[in-house]
Write a structure and sequence with these properties.
about 50% helix; elongated; Serine Threonine Protein Phosphatase 5, Tetratricopeptide repeat; 4-stranded mixed beta sheet; OmpA-like_sf; alpha+beta; 2 domains; 60s Ribosomal Protein L30, Chain: A; about 290 residues
């Protein structure tokens, strides 16, 4: 968790009739959570545009987040703040720091489906340049971290989690290119036949490619280490090809290639000690999509 400050605030300027945003920002920088909340109250934002009012609420949310981050830094368990974090999320729809913290809570509780959702929402919220101005945005390394955790939680989840939560699927966030996505397309054991959940994930991938319109994709199949290396390499290629044929039949118009890696490149989770062997193998079994614009 990282602290937030409002040193620069493009929308808080003298030409604006909304002074609530400036007041909330000043309170945030002074560590005055009550002052930030007061500035974000509905009565205080009557002169603000919808965007300014929303941003003012998010600044107040950051004041709450900073208090929680300070408490966690002092040893308080993050999960004890879940209800408060959810209330802040419900009020302002974010910001990404709140969503990231909720993802951390559910990841620790092995609630992988909801953790994947939170991390993906955090990533998309961070990319919203209107409601997440530069001073509020994560740096490039943190954007990549959010994407990695969203991907990891998708692979760990029992049910499919969409590649995009709000709007079109993206392979770039605030100028940070994310060419490769690990998809949780699942197959019947030892075959290249989709499970019902795998078919659902394949459909989601097609919708993602349909909106992103990459000119070319490479599908890279991976397996777990169970079985012979030669058999796993053959199986991983067959699974990548099965997905490619599904995407083409569904309407993907770009060019494509397939690669089978077998067990050569196991998935590298954020914290391997958080999983048992069966789950580590589940993370290994994946098809990665490498896109080229």
């Amino acid at each position: 968790m990282i602290f937030a400050s409002a040193v620069l605030l493009p929308l808080a300027n003298q030409a604006s009739a909304c002074d609530a945003l400036a007041k909330a920002s000043e309170a945030l920088n002074e560590g005055d959570e009550a002052g930030a909340r007061s500035a974000a109250a509905q009565q205080s934002t009557k002169a603000c545009s919808d965007t300014e009012a929303a941003l003012t609420r998010r600044v107040a949310a950051l004041a709450t987040f900073n208090r929680i981050a300070n408490a966690v830094g002092g040893g308080a368990p993050l999960e004890t703040f879940q209800i408060e974090l959810e209330a802040v999320r419900n009020d302002g729809g974010g910001p990404w720091q709140i969503l990231d913290a909720l993802g951390d809570i559910d990841r620790a509780r092995k609630k992988y489906e909801s953790a994947a959702t939170y991390y993906q929402q955090a990533l998309e919220d961070a990319a919203n340049e209107q409601l997440t101005p530069d001073w509020m945005a994560p740096d490039n390394a943190y954007i990549l971290r959010l994407d990695r955790l969203a991907s990891e939680m998708r692979l760990a989840a029992a049910r499919p989690v969409k590649l995009a939560m709000r709007g079109a699927c993206k392979f770039s966030y605030r100028g940070v290119s994310i060419r490769k996505k690990a998809t949780p397309v699942r197959y019947v054991f030892g075959t290249a036949e989709f499970t019902p959940e795998g078919l659902q994930s394949a459909k989601d991938l097609f919708e993602c490619l349909k909106s992103a319109k990459p000119a070319s994709i490479t599908l890279i199949g991976h397996t777990d280490p169970v079985g012979s290396a030669e058999a796993n390499k053959t199986l991983s290629l067959a699974r990548a090809e099965a997905l490619a044929h599904y995407l083409v039949d569904a309407g993907y118009k770009g060019t494509w290639t397939t690669v089978g890696k077998g067990e050569e490149e196991p998935f590298k989770p954020d914290d391997p000690s958080a999983y048992d062997e069966a789950m580590l193998h589940q993370l290994d079994r994946r098809v990665e999509v490498d896109v080229e614009k």
